[in-house]
Specification:
By secondary structure, this protein is α+β, with helices and mostly antiparallel strands. The chain has one domain (11-210). The chain has helices at residues 11-25, 32-37, 54-71, 93-110, 165-173, 177-192; strands at residues 45-48, 81-85, 132-134, 137-144, 159-164.
Length: 230
């Protein structure tokens, strides 16, 4: 599937793209994988309106489905899809978390039922092997927003980064994942003095707890996502 002709970016959109490039390009930014996969002019960085709204969900679903098909043929190259939202930012970490899951629920409801859930992961957010799936592909989702308590997640606009799960599994098979993970965590400690207590390896605890970046270890946490049953 080929991409549609690119629509010229407005000055405001170019400013957002430049800001994201500066955010990821900061020498202190911990995620080394993001530095190699995300670029301000990348066709996989798109700007939308209000996080979780109907018009945004329709557009995002179409773009993410296109990306999912393209990612399958990316070969060894690391890649990610970045959705940045220009609507009024949520007022708190919990508010962002609610909006994030509302957006993922809206995407799921627009997913092609024929694509099914990626069989390599669980659809139950309580399962340690859960991962969000769209267009038949599993994604690890990273939420960014200005109210995040984690400096590595504190971006000027709300954003969702969709990382194909398959590329992490490829890194594991190649014996590269643990070394990259440890370097990223060491850089996060250097930036903030600690790693996010919600972090865990895939299969240990559901990654759903990690998507928003909020510390979910302080009390019982229940994911609001529900898989479509029909």
């Amino acid at each position: 599937m080929t991409s549609p002709p690119a629509t010229p970016a407005s000055p405001f959109e170019r400013r957002i793209r430049d800001a994201f490039g500066e955010f990821v390009g900061d020498p202190r930014f911990p995620c080394l994988a993001a530095k190699t996969t995300l670029h301000p002019g990348d066709e996989h960085l798109r700007v939308y309106g209000v996080l979780g709204s109907v018009p945004v969900s329709d557009a995002l679903a179409a773009d993410l489905a296109r990306f999912a098909h393209q990612a399958s043929s990316a070969g060894q190259r690391l890649t990610a899809f970045v959705a940045i939202f220009t609507g009024r930012p949520p007022a708190s970490e919990r508010a962002f978390e609610r909006r994030l899951w509302r957006q993922l629920q809206c995407l799921h409801e627009r997913d092609d039922p024929a694509a099914g859930w990626d069989p390599s992961v669980s659809a139950d957010p309580r399962d340690p092997r859960f991962s969000f799936s769209f267009a038949g592909k599993a994604f690890f989702v990273v939420g960014l927003h200005p109210k995040s308590s984690r400096l590595a997640r504190r971006f000027r606009w709300p954003a969702l980064v969709f990382n194909p799960h398959a590329q992490f599994e490829r890194l594991r098979r190649d014996g590269q994942f643990e070394r990259l993970r440890d370097r990223i965590r060491a850089r996060d400690i250097a930036l903030q003095g600690s790693i996010n207590p919600s972090l865990s390896d895939f299969g240990v605890r559901s990654e759903a707890e990690q998507y928003s970046g909020r510390d979910t270890t302080e009390g019982p946490w229940r994911c609001p996502f529900h898989r479509r049953t029909s």
